[in-house]
Amino acid sequence: MRLKNQRGFTLMELMVVIVIVAILAAVAVPLYINYVRDAQRTEARGAIGAVITAEQTQFQRTGAYSADVFVRNPTPATQALNCDLTEALQNWDISVTAATPTDGFRVVATGVVGRPTAGLTVTYTYSRATPLPDPWEGT
């Protein structure tokens, strides 16, 4: 009795390939998600950096920080600070608070609902009186 020349893979070979692909997916997917989140946080930090620069410029001009450095509908006063966050506003809501105008300010970028950044928050706190070791916070 002669066996025909067989083609294809055995069930065992297919199972080994499936297990290897599953292990790779289990490792790669969480890493990819973390890379995406880090990129989103970096976008927020870039936008916050523009606000920080505008705040420092405002302080040099007037001697006080302002919560009006950036608003969604800019006025001539806020446009004069050259703080254009048009691109960042697609994914982030950015708010600035200056509790004490001469002491410091806080910038919060919150992910926009319905966008990939939803649920993320990045915060920068600046204080002239007490410099913080790491002014960045985020989730």
TrEMBL record:
Domain of life per record: Bacteria
TM helices/strands, residue ranges: 12-33
InterPro entries: N_methyl_site (IPR012902), PilE-like (IPR031982), Pilin-like (IPR045584)
Keywords: Membrane, Methylation, Transmembrane, Transmembrane helix
Biological process per Gene Ontology, one example term: type IV pilus assembly
NCBIfam families hit by this protein: IV_pilin_GFxxxE
Protein name, entry field: Prepilin-type N-terminal cleavage/methylation domain-containing protein
